[in-house]
Amino acid sequence: ETGVTQSPTHLIKTRGQQVTLRCSSQSGHNTVSWYQQALGQGPQFIFQYYREEENGRGNFPPRFSGLQFPNYSSELNVNALELDDSALYLCASSLGRGENEKLFFGSGTQLSVL
Amino acid sequence: RKEVEQDPGPFNVPEGATVAFNCTYSNSASQSFFWYRQDCRKEPKLLMSVYSSGNEDGRFTAQLNRASQYISLLIRDSKLSDSATYLCVGTPSGGYNKLIFGAGTRLAVHP
Questions:
Q1: Chain-wide mean pLDDT for chain A?
Q2: Can you give the C-alpha Rg of chain B in angstroms?
Q3: Searching chain A, which residue's CA lies closest to the CA of residue B102?
Q4: For residue range B45-93, what is the model confidence (pLDDT) as tens digits?
Q5: Which of A78-82, A102-106, B31-35, B67-71 has the highest mean pLDDT?
Q6: Is B80 helix (H, G, I), strand (E, B) or coil?
Q7: Which residues of A touch B45 (CB under 8 A)?
Q8: CB neighbours of A17 closer than 8 A, spacing ≥ 6?
Q9: Do the Cβ atoms of A112 and A12 come closer than 8 Å?
């Protein structure tokens, strides 16, 4: 167990809807990263939050947005859902944002868009 | 070109076999390297870091060749429990802990 929890575990939405995914970081961790893993692919970096500020973003459109709260938990919001957004969404927390900081992954949210 | 590329497999091997996975990376993913293991639709778990000098952890050996931009993972004496997807991972230079994953190589070990 990594101490990183994600909710919900599974979610079904339809095209055009909006979704919010949640992540509680491990105690003491101030950095949260989000990844999207489509079927048959490796996880792709969406963005990272460090102390409530976005600290880096991958190649995802603006309809993917995030938030980090003072307790360092985080949300990933996706607007105007598309079929290709169907994926496993992984959250990872770390003690800091430095390149040597180990990431601890949650077990993910499986999103299906119909 | 993808930043980290792997042979997708699958590799189907009998128990006890030795199997090797290869991975190449681009300049944008060239700071540090790891192998992760992922069981079906679960979170990836760190298997081992990869160093230029090569490193071993039990039955697993990882190697990095910076000149060729090539990483390998060798699994000796395969067990049924080794069946999983193995993800090759690099990180960019630039001072933060973003992981760049390859698409993964599937391994199926059969009796």
A1: 95
A2: 13
A3: A42
A4: 999 999 888 899 999 999 999 999 999 999 999 999 999 999 999 988 7
A5: A78-82
A6: helix
A7: 105
A8: A81, A113
A9: yes
Q: What is the 3-state secondary structure (H, E, C) of chain A?
A: CCCCEEECCEEEECCCCCEEEEEECCCCCCEEEEEEECCCCCCEEEEEEECCEEEEECCCCCCEEEEECCCCCEEEEECCCCHHHCEEEEEEEECCCCCCCCCEECCCEEEEEC
- A to B CB pairs, distance under 8 Å: 67
The rounded distance, in Å, linking the Cα atoms of A83 and B35 is: 30
Report whether pLDDT(B95) > 80.
no
Sequence letter at residue A56:
G
